[in-house]
Amino acid sequence: MNSFDELDLRILTALQCDSGLTNQALAERVFASPATTLRRVRALTDSGVIERNVAILSPEKIRDVLIAITEITLSDQHAEAFDAFEKLAIIAPEIQQCYRTAPSVDFTLVLALTGMTQYNALVQRVFSAANNVRNVRTRFATKRGKFATALPLPDAA
Fold first, then answer.
1. Domain map (residue ranges) of the chain
2. Contacts of 132-135 spanning 24+ positions with Cβ under 8 A
3. Which pLDDT tens digit goes with each residue over 98-135?
4. The CATH number of 66-140 is which of 3.40.50.620, 3.30.70.920, 3.10.180.10, 2.30.30.60?
């Protein structure tokens, strides 16, 4: 567990809003020198707190993107079965997020698809009885009301 001071928290807050800031702009925003800011960002990255920097695209602006939330229940309920399914989910490019969940369902997945043909192929490839899947429940998003990526941050150490 990392311990953050006020400057770390200001940097993380600013980067969660806009990771494309130049070091100079970030330094101005967090009230620190550019050298200190760069050193802190590198330390936060090296420690794994900052995993990566990405561009978040709007599915509404990309033609034919279908977002779905899928709940998976496995037939066998043991650690090896969970690990095996998770490995399949991780390598499927259509599965954007994979969570082990409890109670009632074993996995909750967020999918990004180009349409029903791609969904059906995913069902055959990953969500089949051959892969220990007992039950699949998928809901398709009709409108995105909110989407956020910022995580809540702890108080300063």
1. 6-46, 66-140
2. 132/74, 132/75, 132/76, 132/81, 132/84, 132/85, 133/72, 133/73, 133/74, 133/75, 133/85, 134/73, 134/74, 134/75, 135/71, 135/72, 135/73, 135/105
3. 999 999 999 999 999 999 999 999 999 999 988 999 99
4. 3.30.70.920
